[in-house]
Amino acid sequence: MTMTFSKERREKLRQKALRQPRDTKGRFVKLKPLPVEPPRMEEPIPFGETEVSERTVHVLIHAEYRLPRAQPAWPHIDGFNYDNEDVPAYVDRSIATNPNALQIFLNAMHTEHVHYRARVVEYI
Q1: Which residues pair with 118 in a beta bridge?
Q2: To which H or E segment does residue 117 belong?
Q3: Whose CA is closest to 123, among 100, 82, 95?
Q4: Contact 107, 114 (CB under 8 A)
Q5: Where are the domains of the chain?
Q6: Is the four-CA dihedral 47, 49, 51, 55 of positive or negative sign?
Q7: What tens digit of pLDDT does each residue of 45-78 get?
Q8: Is residue 14 helix, strand or coil?
């Protein structure tokens, strides 16, 4: 069953379709309205000046890392491009129990390392 429209209605629909935004493949897309004011980013706290509050705990983190500029010809020689470290730090309670969040936290602290295994060893 096909619908029939009058000539004026067809022209109106055609004009509306021409005005609608399309992506690179010609499909119709919906534009999201822009926010009135962009969200403000909090200023990062400099390392060493971490705010101590009821939500933070002092922990000892054991982390294994690799150097991002490691030579691919020597992938698994211990101490050449893989190493480990013990890092005392004040972290949020939710981060202390999440290994992925600990890795992100340590990668932000030590930008020259890529941490791949991190765990809380001791609550100080």
Answers
A1: 63
A2: strand 114-123
A3: 95
A4: yes
A5: 56-123
A6: positive
A7: 555 555 566 788 889 999 988 876 655 566 555 5
A8: helix
Which residues pair with residue 60 across a beta bridge? 88, 122
Query: In 3-state terms, the chain is what percent helix, strand and coil (to 5)?
Result: 25, 30, 50
Tell me the per-residue pLDDT of 1-22, one tens digit each, with 9 for 90 and over: 567 778 898 898 888 888 887 7
Q: Which residues are CB-neighbours of 29 under 8 A, at least 6 positions away?
A: 21, 22, 23
User: Could you tell me the pTM of the whole model?
Assistant: 0.51
Q: Counting every residue, how long is the chain?
A: 124
Query: What is the signed CA dihedral for 96, 115, 106, 85, rounded to 10 degrees?
Result: 90
- 119, 106 contact by CB (below 8 A): no
Best CA proximity match to 86, nearest among 48, 52, 120, 47: 120
- State residue 29's pLDDT score: 78
Q: Are strands 114-123 and 56-66 parallel, antiparallel or unpaired?
A: antiparallel
Kindly list the distances between the CA atom of residue 30 and the CA atoms of 16, 20, 24, 33, in Å, as whole numbers in the listed order: 14, 8, 13, 9
Distances (CA, A) of 70 to 79, 105, 111, 113, 114: 11, 22, 14, 10, 11
